[in-house]
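Lecture 7 notes: from sequence to structure.

We start with a single chain of 565 residues. Read the sequence below before looking at the structure.
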Amino acid sequence: MSSGGAEDDIPQGERKTVTDFCYLLDKSKQLFNGLRDLPQYGQKQWQSYFGRTFDVYTKLWKFQQQHRQVLDNRYGLKRWQIGEIASKIGQLYYHYYLRTSETSYLNEAFSFYSAIRQRSYYSQVNKEDRPELVVKKLRYYARFIVVCLLLNKMDVVKDLVKELSDEIEDYTHRFNTEDQVEWNLVLQEVAAFIEADPVMVLNDDNTIVITSNRLAETGAPLLEQGMIVGQLSLADALIIGNCNNQVKFSELTVDMFRMLQALEREPMNLASQMNKPGMQESADKPTRRENPHKYLLYKPTFSQLYTFLAASFKELPANSVLLIYLSATGVFPTGRSDSEGPYDFGGVLTNSNRDIINGDAIHKRNQSHKEMHCLHPGDLYPFTRKPLFIIVDSSNSVAYKNFTNLFGQPLVCLLSPTAYPKALQDQSQRGSLFTLFLNNPLMAFLFVSGLSSMRRGLWEKCQEYLRKINRDIAQLLTHSRSIDQAFLQFFGDEFLRLLLTRFIFCSATMRMHKIFRETRNYPESYPQLPRDETVENPHLQKHILELASILDVRNVFFENTIDDY
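Now the structure, written as tokens:
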């Protein structure tokens, strides 16, 4: 029988089912591919397009579920094709998270990625002699790992890494491909990422406790009666990473990963509240405050960085704050300059598109020219027309100490130490100590105290004590008579309040520590904090010694710190 005759034998209804499926499949691919053409910056232009894409994928997913038997018999639908649809929906949810910073969409992405694995949608791919299908499977694993890392599902990550390793070995054995080195690098990167934390928290059976560093309900110290603070709220954040040799995975360095979690609330499951992103009415949204919107920029060129900065600045609502986090290699001025302007102290390198000289330090050979991709303090001056909160983690962070507030808007810079004591084990590849203090201050405290593991019970006891310290730091700040008002104007926002209290805890800890003896070992800020009322306050120092006593590491700190200066 001819193929035409065979087609004539197909009932009209089943033929329409196949036609409708093909239409939805083609439409979904067309819309998905169009996502690449949307601008990455700006929060409004993309929403209607994303909504249409979700709409089509929702219909496609339900359609193949309702008509599976017909599609199996008449279309020849394979399980890996169902897996592809589920994978695309998972990608949509993940990208919606990136666009909105709403962590609940990560749970939705996890659900679809997890279903692919549980239902073995890709299991038959290895039997087909098509390397491009195997690559789809490998990419699915890599994407699933990223989502699990962001959700702190480390047990699942470890299982996925083992499965991915087996898949890569099978792939490279069967097909003589040129991308073997690239896939092995993916494995190495994720393995290093998992091991980045310098301290392990252990259960009684020695299994590792997974700790989350997102903002919990009890995370930030509460504002108490009588505390006079500003009403600004953090709306936008640019998280920029370009540290040489730092562990990264999927264009996310350890520092970027830690900072993005410090700017998010614990995820909640939205399954009962919405069908798909972009479609719910505002009345159905959760009542709690949203996360600040974030841009994650890995090694951006100057033009890319300025474009994103301008977009954030333009869309910043009234009474809102823009945060800029820079984790990057320092660029130092060479020679002496006749002037001391905002471009004469160097800055940080946001994109290294050539060989780095001597590791961390970049020196221009031609002293009359400046590094093209260096972000100088002066580059940020135009954006100080609105409230700006800057964090610089770099070997030349002090360049930003020479800021000038031209427009009278709230402006604060938190600056990392420019060097760490040689006696401290070098952990720079596994992330900066300063950023670790801002993300997980107890883990950072344990690390500088020489501890590498701890029992869960003691960890929770120390966390409770650290919450007490944060409450006291909040009181020190708000009761200070000489503190710059910029700090208090930012203190009304939960995220910024927590970052400020952690910064002061970090600075006080380092100033009391016996091996942190040079000025460059200490964090600084612009404007300067009144030391005697904050980072060198005797009441705070007593608390830090108490915490050290709980951990039995009091010997690494000076007892009478002020007398030692």
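The two ends are 97 Å apart (CA to CA). Keep this in mind for problem set 3.
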